[in-house]
Design goal:
This protein is an alpha+beta fold and 286 residues long. It has seven helices and ten strands. It is 34% helix and 24% strand.
Amino acid sequence: MDVSLATNAGRADRPNEDFVGAVPGAVVLLDGAGIPGAESLCSHGVAWYTHRLGGALLGHLSLGDGRELAAILATAIGEIAAEHGDTCDIADPSSPQATVAMVRADQDRLEWLLLADSYLVLDRVNSGPLVVTDEREMTARRECAAPLAGLVLRTPEYDRVRASCATALRTRRNQPGGYWIAKDDPRAAREAVTGSRSLTDLNGVALLSNGASRIVSPYGRTDWPGVLDLLRASGPAGVIARVRQFEAQADGSADAQAPDDATVAHCTYLPRWAPAVPRDRARLQA
């Protein structure tokens, strides 16, 4: 499996809170999240959390022990929680956390796991791309933001209601009926979106953080088949460069969004596994 990776910080004055890495046959992409000004809760910060969790996931995946991806994620969440649980208030809803996207080629299948709003794009052989994401955070965000409808931007009333909406969203985090994200509780891994597909059905697979997926939504500058075309032509760095271009063009408009960390992994030449021929059978065939 060939893997191309690219990541870019949304702001030059802040560390990149995304993480991406690969070991033979597996890729991990994390999108860190936290609340600015929450340093009193965790002195390490979001970037530290994503990098530590991502490294732990790659370490477990490299063992090749066949454990389910959700079990690997649960173990890694528990390990990182133990690293700073004694010094930081990791149970607070605003403490560092991360979305998780993992893929693994295991024998004849590609397995995946998604927790919160990163994206997986399966490049299928005989049809268009299949896009997989965990929609629960987006659903909760829309529901919590409903009171903002009709309010004038950048007014005291808007700012007050927006703060209330943010608090409401945090109360839904890692709760039944809300959404799930990697943080302090290993049980969140049980709630991940998982699946698998035969490797023979796939030309490749792409993983995108929320910041990179903006090229499709909300900017609408291409669709998911277009993303795959751009990956083939320019690689992950080309996708991120387009995102930055569109962010610059939207600057100052009603559609403008603050630049976000953007990360893409593109996997091609997926392994084609064939079962070993028993020795006695091979002798007969010879």
